[in-house]
Amino acid sequence: MKPLVTTIMLAFCIGTASTFGAIAVGAEKIPASSIPAEYLVQPAGLAAALQSTSGPAPLVLQVGFRKLFDEAHIIGAEYVGAAGESDGLAALRKRVANLPKDSALVIYCGCCPWNKCPNMGAAFAALRELGFRNVKALYIAKDFGTDWIDKGYPVTRGG
Question: Considering only CA atoms, which of 153, 94, 117 is closest in space to residue 40?
């Protein structure tokens, strides 16, 4: 009887924690702040790199929410899905599956302040786990509108 009670309690705890965001099913809850500073790129730096003709531009992947991407996104960026959710993380893995491990990648979200972003940490961790070593994370301190659009960096409006 004791193993059955333990199993039921464990299931209850996992279900309750999932409801309140403490445990993610299929996607990890990794804070954006876990990304080491040497892997961060500032908006001005990325905007300059994307406008440069001195070399190939990095592949820019939006790992946030579709609504944000559809409203406005970095020119040339691709939407892959909210990496804080299992479907988005799976879409990210699928998108990069056939890329060389030395590909220059930049991920960004911009849904909310950096310290509250539910997507960047999981996306960065997944890419590093897959063996990608040339990954940068766009540091958006407040949100995409404030830190990219309002600064006059180029965007595409609409999906």
Answer: 117
From first to last of its 159 residues, the chain has per-residue pLDDT tens of 434 333 333 333 333 333 333 333 345 589 999 999 999 999 999 999 999 888 788 999 999 999 999 999 999 999 999 999 999 999 999 999 999 999 999 999 999 999 999 999 999 999 999 999 999 999 999 999 999 999 999 999 976
Residue carrying structure tokens 């609504």? 67
Helices (H), 76-129: 86-96, 120-129
The two structure tokens encoding residue 109: 């979200």
Quick one: which H or E segment has residue 126?
A: helix 120-129
Q: Specify which residues 156 forms β-bridges with.
A: 73
27-157: CATH topology:
Oxidized Rhodanese; domain 1 (3.40.250)
